[in-house]
Amino acid sequence: MLRGRSAIVTGGAGFIGSYLTEELLSRNCKVTVVDDFSAGKMENIEHLIRNPSLKVVREDLRNPRQLGKIVAKHDLIFHLAANPEVRVGQTEPKVHFEENVLATFNLLEAVRKAEAEKTLVFTSTSTVYGEASVMPTPEDYGPCVPISTYGASKLASEALMTSYVHTFNHKGLILRLANVIGPKSNHGVIFDFIKKIVADPHELEILGDGTQEKSYLYITDLVGAMMHLTEHCLENSGKTAIYNVGSKDKIMVKEIAKTVAAEMGCPRIRYRFTGGVDGGRGWKGDVKNMQLSIEKLLGTGWKPRFSSRQAVKLAAHELSRELCQH
User: Fold this and answer.
1) Which residues contact 12 (CB under 8 A, 6 or more apart)?
2) This prediction's pTM
3) Would the N or C end of the chain have less CB density within 10 A of its end CB?
4) Whole-angstrom Cα distance, residue 306 to residue 217?
5) Residue numbers of the domain that contains 281
């Protein structure tokens, strides 16, 4: 169903977007990457540039100029463009509104004005649930009460998307992701730990009390799930489908620190815990414990190859090599 389709990937030069773009091209899709390159990097997709099926457009979704013409030419849209830094919300909440909510609204307006049926795939986040009282947390858990402006911006974007899909007769797929890790990632706990150990191989600062426990998903597992669920969405009629995408387990920050330190050749490094805020969180708005229920996803016939621990070990190995070469 996906083979040979014409697709847009917003944020296609970013961490997840570059892997998705490569996978779509491998399926003989024509792909237009739309990215403002504020976070995305051309080097993430430079090995794909000579592919005649790829077009790269520099476009800021906060103030788009070419978006209407681009959207009109494609029937499949993967919307990944967003600011993923949860901590930014403490000091600059406007960033999440503009780069996540406003950007999504502008994309949806372009879709509306195209006046043709589109399939929209949106990468949302586990943080929309806030501090869920049910864990693993299923898709029908509610009410969703995010505790970060990042989570709020993604939940607002979900609501905008479901309304546009319903009102203007499109297909929609919302993916609520666990923490996605792997090579080319430029934020998150593993990336931060590696950077800190490079700077000081004797002591590692750990935000919070180290007991934060969450699910992690390896990047190739995510892309596989995205392909599987998009095909599932294309084959089935209906409005918007929502799926959690994660692993079957979770892992504590302290264990991640040990894994990264061992991978960096510093197994005896000292740990310095900041103590954190609000009962040991890394920062205000940090969800301390998260595990998504993926029973609905498993029911479609797909399952992740890697557990959270396996994903962390693999990502730590590859990211440490990648960052230490620079």
Assistant:
1) 18, 20, 21, 31, 33, 34, 35, 40, 45, 56, 78, 80
2) 0.96
3) C
4) 7
5) 181-214+248-290+305-324
pLDDT tens digits, residue range 87-114? 787 788 899 999 999 999 999 999 999 9
SS3 label, residue 95:
helix
Would you give the distance in Å from CA 325 to the centre of its chain? 25
Q: Which three-class secondary structure state does DSSP give residue 33?
A: strand
Same domain, 107 and 191: no
pLDDT at 195 over 80: yes
pLDDT digits (tens, 9 = 90+) for 213-229: 999 999 999 999 999 99
**DSSP SS3 for 124:** strand
| Catalytic site residue from 141, 150, 216, 218 | 150
Cα dihedral sign, 57-62-65-71: positive
Does residue 326 register a pLDDT over 70?
Answer: no
| The pLDDT value given to residue 114 | 97
First CA to last CA distance, the chain: 40
- CB contact at 8 A, 137 and 244: yes
Pull the structure tokens for residue 260: 């990264």
Whether 128 is covered by a domain: the verdict is yes
Task: Report d(CA 85, CA 259) in Å as an integer.
Answer: 23
Q: Is 150 a catalytic residue?
A: yes
Mapping DSSP to helix (H, G, I), strand (E, B) and coil, where does residue 63 land? Answer: coil
Within a domain: 298: no
pLDDT at res. 237: 66
Query: For the chain, what is the mean pLDDT?
Result: 95
The answer to whether position 171 is within a domain reads yes
Domain for residue 279, yes or no?
Answer: yes
